[in-house]
Amino acid sequence: MSGRLADKVALVTGGASGIGREIARCYVAEGASVVIGDRNATLLAEVEKALGAAAVEMDVTREADVERAVGLALSRFGRLDIGVNSAGLGFGVSVLEQTEAQWDTVVDVCLKGVFLCLKHEARAMVNAGHGGVIINIASISARQPGEGLSAYCAAKAGVEMLTRCAAMELGPQRVRVVGIGPGLIDTPLTTFQQDRPHVREAFLANIPLGRVGVPRDIANAAVFLGSDEASWISGDTLFVDGAELTKKYPELGRFRRS
Ligand SMILES: NC(=O)c1ccc[n+]([C@@H]2O[C@H](COP(=O)([O-])OP(=O)(O)OC[C@H]3O[C@@H](n4cnc5c(N)ncnc54)[C@H](O)[C@@H]3O)[C@@H](O)[C@H]2O)c1
């Protein structure tokens, strides 16, 4: 199918890599005009060229950057219909060893960044009076604890609840707010398992559908949720994870210690 997002304008943060990049690619293929935002200027330039999208260098933890990114969608394409908040990062460190700066880095990007983007994307939609949809990329880590991932899991759980609160507040103004919770997806974020067969095996043992995900798995959900086919879906997070959430997160601490 094509043209499912014809005439829509989307902003995709974290759009220079991995899941965000594939969402941006599929959105363009479905007829949307897309602005990609990312803090990695080199990758951003590459993706801008490959997709023919507009691009803006931004740090999602800085409100002025977020306003500038939303402003670019409005000035270049005249409106904003879809915000996809995919910028994120994480790293493994135990609760006992974690520094305040490490905690702040993860929570600022993964939770505050989503809040700032959601706020300004929603303002543009409400001010224009046409509504829209905001898609927050959470994670199975919102529900499933992972060793060494306390900041990441806490931030992603926060994203799931932020999605619910915002959907409640913004529904009357015709703004839908939904989440996607990916399971393990092969992207630059997850190289820690791609080149370590025993770690990958541990993940695979807990994925009932028997394979690791690819960015397209998430992009397919993002196309549906961003389209008018999903016009009565808001507040929930859709977990796209090969049923990983039905099992447990691998004991990553064991691999770190070995
Ligand atoms: N890959 C997975 O297995 C997986 C699983 C669950 C959730 N997720 C989530 O999916 C989202 C995308 O992850 P990915 O796997 O595509 O990772 P990725 O590293 O390939 O892409 C993330 C992008 O976000 C950008 N970014 C990071 N901090 C930023 C900031 N402060 N401002 C602007 N851009 C910033 C990076 O430059 C990068 O281009 C993240 O929110 C991640 O937590 C990924």
SSE topology sketch:
Layout: E1 9-13, H1 18-29, E2 33-38, H2 41-51, E3 54-57, H3 63-77, E4 82-85, H4 100-128, E5 132-137, H5 150-170, E6 175-182, H6 191-194, H7 197-204, H8 215-226, E7 237-240, H9 252-257
The structure holds nicotinamide-adenine-dinucleotide.
What does this structure look like?
The chain has 258 residues and is an alpha/beta fold. It has a single domain (9-257), classed as 3-Layer(aba) Sandwich (Rossmann fold). Helices cover 46% and strands 14% of the residues. It contains 9 helices and 7 strands. Strand 2 (33-38), helix 2 and strand 3 form a beta-alpha-beta unit. The radius of gyration is 18 Å and the shape is globular. It starts with 8 loop residues before the first strand and ends with a helix. The structure holds nicotinamide-adenine-dinucleotide (NAD). Residues 13-14, 16-20, 38-40, 43, 58-61, 86-90, 109, 113, 137, 139, 182, 184-185, 187-190 line the site of nicotinamide-adenine-dinucleotide.
